[in-house]
Amino acid sequence: MTESLVLSLMGAGAALLIAQWAGAAIRTLLVMALAPSPSVFTDPRTVGLTTALAAVAGILVGLATAMSADRADLSQTLRGGARGGVAERTRLRAGLLITQAALSVALLIGAALFVRSVERVKSMPIGYDADRVLLVNRVIQRDGFNDSTQRLLRLRLLETARALPDVESAAWMSSAPFVSTSSTRLYVLGIDSVDALGSFSYQATTPDYFRTMGTRILRGRPLMPEDRAGAPNAAVVSESMARTLWPGQDALGKCFRMREATAPCLTVVGIAEDMVQRDLAGTQRLHYYVSIDQYTRTWGNGLVLRVRGDPAVKAESIRKALQRVMPGTSYVIVQPLSEIVADAQRSWRLGATMFVAFGFLALVVASIGLYGVINYNVTQRMHELGVRVALGAQRSDVVRMVTRQGVQVALIGAAGGVALAVVSARWLQPLLFQQSATDPWIYAGASAAMTVVALVASVIPAIRASRADPITALRAE
Predict the structure, then answer these.
(1) Triad 285, 287, 288: Cα angle to 5°
(2) How many domains does the chain have?
(3) Torsion, CA 390, CA 395, CA 400, CA 406, rounded to 10
(4) Considering only CA atoms, which of 99, 113, 119 is closest in space to residue 362?
(5) Do residue 373 and residue 435 come from a single domain?
(6) 121-158: buried (b, 16+ CB within 10 Å) or exposed (e) per residue?
(7) Label partner for 180 (CA 20 to 30 A): which of 53, 116, 392, 408?
(8) Please, what is the angle between helix 44-70 and helix 2-26, to 10°?
(9) Smallest Cα–Cα separation from 222: which of 208, 243, 240, 203?
(10) Does residue 17 lie within any of the structural domains?
(11) Phi-psi category of residue 93: left, alpha or beta, with phi > 0 → left and psi -120 to 50 → alpha
(12) Which residues lie closer than 8 Å to 466 by C-beta, 6 or more apart?
């Protein structure tokens, strides 16, 4: 019991050190937190729980070992000498190794599934070129702004941005991707309830919005300067919206109304590629775009800029130029759109990183455990192995016998890990992105990785076993 507790508490101390380092790395690389990482050693709950878990593990392992020794047949043990009682302890260790291998395979499967999800998230078309776009938001710090003054301020900001040498194009918009969305009731002739077909969101913009965002117009035209107040109301709809509202028909020229059934008709003048506005995992891309001049008098809430070069590098100089236009203590906030998209992808990246870390640690622990057990078994069986060699067994036969033991444990553990992953798939599937939680290739790859690790962990003990001295074994007999 004493040996078991000392080992488990030493492991708890090492675990706290690893947690302190890993926590700081995760905060820096994934969460991008600027505040210093809290120390796990100053948190009584963390230290207390870790110590308690280590103590319980040490007591359970110590009790199991002591009870196993207490049940041994004394006379048989004395007759067998150092070789007595090996078989029962070997079975117990093999059972623990199989459990460890099963958990390792299950974690490896989870890691691979999340990594594939991250790859799919990054490769998914989002409908705009976020790598060269800046978002600008203004913060007004004083009262007295009415619709007219706000429109004048936004017009000055837009003109200032367009005049900057680092800016290719600029546009105002009512909402920004992953930041805010706008929606209202829609009315379409021949459809009783448009809301029953999905959630439709709109974007009120100035001309050049699609060119600035890098969004393609698939058919028709984008919003133009001619789509001003007093002109016929125009709208651009996403491809998914056109397909949902007018299936099997050409949406160009179709009419729909916003807010009220008696509102002026909005004529579809263009169809744009689907754009991700709110949720990467969402399957609906039901968006439409209207002219700010025709829809609102306040000219939207944000400015979007397409820049030459790296947006992160240009952001500060552009902010300073726009800040000169702001009155009093009001100010602007400039942020690369790519950072906002990366924030939306963070949950999958965090899940992938954590699963990979846990899977790697589990694989390392399983390989060390497998090596230790096989090496110990070889030590216990050196006499037997020497007798086998003396009776004519080839060295290669001994190597295969010892290696086969490790591979068998890995294969049985892999089967258990696959079964555990299949059972857990129903809870894991909602966390994945366009990736099946029961991908057979990933299951096979994780099982193969565990088998290779077991093979490598068995090599050194197998080579040592092949060097068993038959003369020593015969003398002992």
Answers:
(1) 155
(2) 3
(3) 80
(4) 99
(5) yes
(6) beeeebbbebebbbbbebebeeeeeeeeebbebbeebb
(7) 116
(8) 150
(9) 208
(10) yes
(11) alpha
(12) 395, 396, 398, 399
For helices 337-380 and 440-466, the axis angle rounded to 10 degrees is 30
Rounded CA separation 176/135 (Å): 8
CA-CA-CA-CA torsion sign (22, 23, 28, 30):
positive
**Highest mean pLDDT, choosing among 89-93, 123-127, 162-166:** 162-166
Q: State pLDDT tens for residues 153-172.
A: 888 888 999 999 999 999 98
Say what angle helices 440-466 and 395-428 make with each other, to 10 degrees.
150
Same domain flag for 396 and 290: no
Answer yes or no: is 354 within a domain.
yes
Question: Looking at the structure, do residues 465 and 430 belong to the same domain, yes or no?
Answer: yes
Asked if residue 242 lies in contact with residue 273, where contact means CB atoms within 8 angstroms, the answer is no
Type of residue numbered 444: A
Tell the residue number behind the tokens 């894991």, with chain if given: 428
Strand partners, 344: none
- What is the per-residue pLDDT across 353-373, written as a single tens digit (0 to 9) for each? 777 877 788 888 888 888 888
Report d(CA 276, CA 381) in Å as an integer: 64
**Do 317 and 349 share a domain, yes or no?**
no
pTM of whole model > 0.85?
no
Q: Are residues 93 and 232 in the same domain?
A: no
